Q: What sequence folds into this?
């Protein structure tokens, strides 16, 4: 399991608001039962690394379907093979450091 | 007000675990009463853009103080001047799209 | 055609040097004739967006094959469908603005 | 010395082209004699880490001065204190691996 954070930004839409694109990203993930968390700066998704790249590629298409002519997608994948990592695991680990 | 997401990664520490560095980032922010949210992929901080860059510069120093020889800091700042934005505002906005 | 910039960072290797991993990324791209440019902060690759995600997924595996236990991959894709974009196109466009 | 890569993206401008903003970034750096390289995906700047954060903060303001209402700035800083690093150093290091 790995974690991916993805931000998908349509350019040249003439609107400073991106909420409706993020909503479609969330809808896509919910419909497929893909574990994820929305943050104020992106969407964090949990999955096998193989699946994460495939999902990223599909999410990247969302603003084009809605009419965008240029899309800027940024993602980072944290893939750890010495340990199981899930959504919430890292935040929990930090809390343990803080309370010890 | 703007939002910044920051990830601070020490390189060459010989450990795959970064939790203790993130804990120090969180401690720094708590001690100063700076509004923030920890996610599995970074720390999101709310503040005036002037302050955000200054905070980033100080957080970047944390792993060096703990002995790291190379630090890789990635951040993104989302600065909107047509509207007040706070921690949680964007996630709320997406939920409104989804329920409408 | 789109452009992707990718940085692949192995964590916990005990060395502050990443040059040998970047060299393997470059070797991979050269052997397959994939257009790319190496910069001091990442590798920029030109291709169809479909191919870029597939290449990213394969490059991400390189440090694991070399023994890394945790890999942090960051990428951004700039995909423009109103205009052909190739390696060098954007730098050229900026130079035109500067000389005009 | 450290290296910073920065990308400054105005949102909601109604144009898919960003060349003129990047041109102003380059002009800013040239006028002050700050060492930098333009790539197709960002601008790489060399400097003391203290200066890099200050420069980032000033560059971030450029699209607002040109009328943008929302700016998204992404940067990464690679700061190595076990070794002198300049523009070009890392690309050179990779070439040595490839020719050995």
A:
């Amino acid at each position: 399991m790995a974690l991916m954070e993805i931000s998908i930004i349509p350019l040249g839409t003439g609107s400073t608001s991106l909420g409706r694109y993020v909503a479609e990203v969330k809808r896509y993930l919910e419909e497929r039962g893909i574990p994820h968390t929305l943050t104020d700066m992106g969407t964090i998704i949990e999955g096998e690394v193989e699946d994460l790249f495939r999902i990223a590629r599909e999410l990247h298409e969302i603003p084009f379907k809605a009419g965008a002519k240029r899309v800027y997608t940024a993602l980072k994948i944290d893939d750890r093979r010495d340990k199981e990592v899930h959504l919430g695991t890292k935040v929990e680990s930090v809390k343990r450091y803080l309370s010890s």
